[in-house]
Amino acid sequence: MGIVQAIVYGLVQGLTEFLPISSNAHIRIVPSLLGWQDPGAAFTAVIQLGTVAAVLIYFAKDLGAAIKGWAASIAGEGKGTPEARMGWAVFWGTLPIILIGLALHNKIETTFRSLYFIAFALIGMGVVMLLAEKLGKQTRKTKDVTVADGVKVGLWQVLAFIPGMSRSGSTISGALFGGFDRGSAARFSFLLSVPAVTAAGLYEAFKERHNFAGDLLVPTLVATVVSFAVGYASIAFLMKFLQKRGIVPFVAYRVLLGVVLLVLLSQGVLQPLSGVTSESSKPSAEGTAP
Predict the structure, then answer these.
(1) What angle do CA 42, 59, 50 make, to 5 degrees?
(2) Is 11 within the bounds of a domain?
(3) Which domain holds residue 221?
(4) Is the dihedral of CA 75, 95, 236, 141 positive or negative?
(5) CA distances in angstroms from 129 to 132, 165, 190, 254, listed in the order given
(6) Euclidean distance between CA atoms 174 and 178, whole angstroms
(7) Residue-wise pLDDT tens digits, 18-34
């Protein structure tokens, strides 16, 4: 992988990680269109650490309050505070993706990386997002989060294993169905992403440390830095955009992209596993796919 490719992957990751259009799908589609090798879920998981850093900085106050409230509740103080409830919601909401990820690890980098899966996932989740936008009451705020909300939205997060579903798209939809308004749903989604995405990135970095210590080290670092810078701007954009325009424009983009992808596959312009090599198809426990 050259530096130019690394920059492209970093831009794609940063732009699409938080927008509900699936970063993993775009990182699969872009190299297929350009004739590049699929970088694989391990590389994707590691450069997601850049976007995690963006979340940590952008939501530092929220995360600090949730951690402080969670720690205080363990000591028996302030168990019912909004901050403590958010901390426990994130804790319990992270468990489903860990447990189910271990069970599905043999599928994550093989079957799930087929462009057919991605196309149908883009369209299917788009429909779900539209229903969430139309049917959700949107009356609740982040201060209303409960542990039960964490478990429910955490189960929605499991859908992120399939590239095209989108971690942010699935969790924002789950929160909207739970009655949260758009801004609170997005905020809850971002906070919930931190443990799972961080754990997946660190795990893959350790597991593939021999590869990342070689020729792949510099491109990975470049892609991670670029994804951080672009990801921070993407968060700021999404928080404002959702309040004004809602989620429907993203639904339209997802459906259009899914249809175009199916047409390209049906015409033989793209192959379902184009760019995927045996090396990039190794089983992985990568646990977040936005």
Answers:
(1) 25
(2) yes
(3) 3-266
(4) negative
(5) 5, 10, 17, 10
(6) 6
(7) 888 888 788 888 888 88
Domain count, the chain: 1
82 in a structural domain: yes
- Taking only the tens place, the pLDDT of each residue in 78-97 is 677 888 888 899 999 998 88
Tokens of 268: 């033989």
Indicate whether 287 belongs to any domain: no
CB 133 within 8 A of CB 186: no
188 in any annotated domain: yes
- Could you tell me the pTM of the whole model? 0.81
Cβ burial of 155 (10 Å; 0-12, 13-18, 19+) is middle
pLDDT in tens, 230-263: 999 988 888 888 888 888 999 999 999 999 999 9
Question: HSE (CB half, 13 Å, CA atoms) of 273?
Answer: 10
| Amino acid of residue 129 | M
How far CA 160 is from CA of 19, 44, 138, 167, 170, in Å, comes to 13, 13, 23, 5, 7
* Contact partners, residue 81, CB within 8 Å, separation at least 6: 69, 72, 73
What is the C-alpha separation between 129 and 201, in angstroms, rounded?
Answer: 27
Work out the burial of residue 169: count CB atoms within 10 Å of its CB; fewer than 13 is exposed, 13-18 middle, 19 or more buried: buried
Answer for the pair 222, 10: CB distance below 8 angstroms, yes or no: yes
Tell whether the torsion through CA atoms of 32, 33, 35 and 36 is positive or negative: negative
